[in-house]
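Researcher: Please translate sequence to structure tokens.
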Amino acid sequence: MGQFILVYLRQQKRQFLTFLLFCAIYTIVLALYQLPPAALLYPILLCAAAGAAAMGMDLYRVHKRYTSLQQLLEAVGLELPREQEAAGQELSEPEGCDWELLQELLENLEKSQDWECRIYRNMVSRLLEEQRQREDAEQIRYQDTVDYYTTWVHQIKTPIAAMGLILQQEDTECARRLSEQLQRIEQYVEMVLTYLRLGSGDTDYVFAQVDLDTLLRSSIKKYAGQFILKHVALDYRSVNCRVLTDEKWLAFVVEQVLSNALKYTREGRISIYLEAPCTLCIRDTGIGIAPEDLPRIFEKGYTGYNGRSDKKATGLGLYLCRQICDRLKHRITAESVPGEGTVIRIGLGREVLEVE
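Model: Translation complete:
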């Protein structure tokens, strides 16, 4: 504070000289009229007291403003000279020296505004640079994670496929149940890879006209063993429809919905059909979804009553389906009645694009 006052007084020397000049003129004029000393001293003291009060108020205002700007300097990482000297470091450039900036601040209003703008620009540029560095570091870490799990997924598929081939050589109840669990492991592995890929901005979408029947038959064949093992009937007739979509990502959605239908259907049937104009429906006769859970089943990590009772649900399957459908510009909805079943609708229609 003492150094600040000295700098302030040094910057106000022109005002001091002007005050002393006026006092000298006033004293000479009164002395020429041979007035008593009291008549000369009292006005000078009153003017000095008024000037000191005005200067004190101005000093407080400037110091308060300077303190706030000094905090901005510290916020953007500019060390103060006294802190640098205590640390044994060299003084920063004039741009980071608060006392030189203070002298510029006290010269006039125009320069002080320029100084403030420079401080704000400096602060914003520092913050933006730090933000870019954090984003770059986060992107590198995320890419390393994606690369690791991608490699892990491809490596784990080899023993999964080998175990599947071994189990196919035995046609026993135990082998069929092991095959079901192995298929579930493979599904979870694919969910991990899908989750990581959705988090990146460069997912490999390939849009083309896809035969929906071919896609559905492939997905049904994948879960044929579970249909047989659980004695669940399948009601499927050809839909005779071609849709513009990404075959790989839409197949993941269909397989995930089929997996959920088989998981929560203990008896009955699963129906796959097409509603006009182009909405794929997958209906089951399972345990259904509670009304209070239905609006949130597509939220990340939400398992609801069924998931809590099952103890094995992750709350990611339908979340991934919603994310994929949003990216493919499809619409996925759910209707359910507890104890009667659930129907998942996937709207595959698109607006016809006309060439202008």
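Researcher: Any highlights?
Model: The radius of gyration is 39 Å.
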